[in-house]
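Incident log, support desk, overnight shift.

02:14 A customer reports that sequence design results differ from what the structure should imply. Their input is reproduced verbatim below. On-call engineer (initials T.W.) acknowledged and began investigating.
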């Protein structure tokens, strides 16, 4: 039987549980990650506590170990996780978690216009992202890089020839629902440094090994720091 490790730098450490939510244990993962033995102990504790939904904000390998441990105990809670953090491991989850994993992504391929896809294919081809005989496929990093370049060019054009750091920041902060053709519209304001505050929800279909849309774009509520969109 797996024993609970003591607090240390090399093992995950348990964070204090809120007095208002005694039934909602949380776990802070140190750089060492989530060992299989601790994953099994954590799964057993959450199952015995009657948890039906788990928010898992840790890298894909840790998620994989958690899901395997849960499947071995016959426990299938709903899993909520950030898509970029979960990675491809979500598609390799045990079959019992089919359509029980909900991921949040800041952008989807459906955000990309036809013209933007052409640009991305050209960028991917130049970067050697495609194998011989296949269609170039841009990576998320390339999508973000191209969108950032478009954003910078727009701000530079608005700043004009008399460019200063202050002028560039001011122009960036004046952008409202700027369309890069790659991402959801971007809005910046003084004190707001994230252009698109929100996410798409997708469900993991393990039978088809794909993601299915679960929602449209869900903006982060103003109550948690997101000014209302114009």
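02:41 Re-run completed on a clean worker. Output:
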């Amino acid at each position: 039987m797996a024993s609970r490790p003591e607090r240390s730098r090399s093992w995950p450490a348990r964070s204090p549980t809120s007095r208002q939510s005694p039934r909602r244990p949380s776990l802070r993962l140190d750089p060492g990650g989530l060992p299989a033995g601790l994953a099994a102990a954590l799964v057993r504790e959450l199952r015995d506590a009657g948890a039906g939904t788990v928010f898992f904000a840790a890298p894909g390998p840790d998620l994989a170990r958690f899901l395997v441990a849960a499947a071995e105990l016959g426990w299938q809670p709903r899993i909520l996780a950030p898509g970029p953090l979960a990675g491809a491991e979500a598609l390799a989850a045990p079959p019992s978690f089919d359509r029980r994993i909900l991921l949040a992504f800041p952008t989807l391929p459906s955000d990309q216009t036809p013209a933007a896809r052409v640009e991305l294919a050209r960028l991917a081809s130049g970067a050697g992202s495609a194998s011989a005989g296949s269609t170039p496929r841009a990576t998320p990093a390339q999508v973000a890089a191209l969108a950032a370049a478009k954003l910078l060019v727009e701000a530079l054009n608005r700043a004009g020839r008399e460019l200063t750091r202050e002028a560039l920041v001011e122009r960036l902060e004046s952008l409202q629902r700027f369309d890069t053709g790659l991402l959801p519209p971007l809005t910046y304001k003084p004190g707001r440094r994230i252009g698109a505050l929100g996410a798409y929800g997708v469900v993991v279909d393990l039978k088809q090994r794909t993601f299915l849309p679960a929602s449209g774009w869900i903006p982060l509520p103003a109550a948690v720091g997101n000014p209302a969109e114009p």
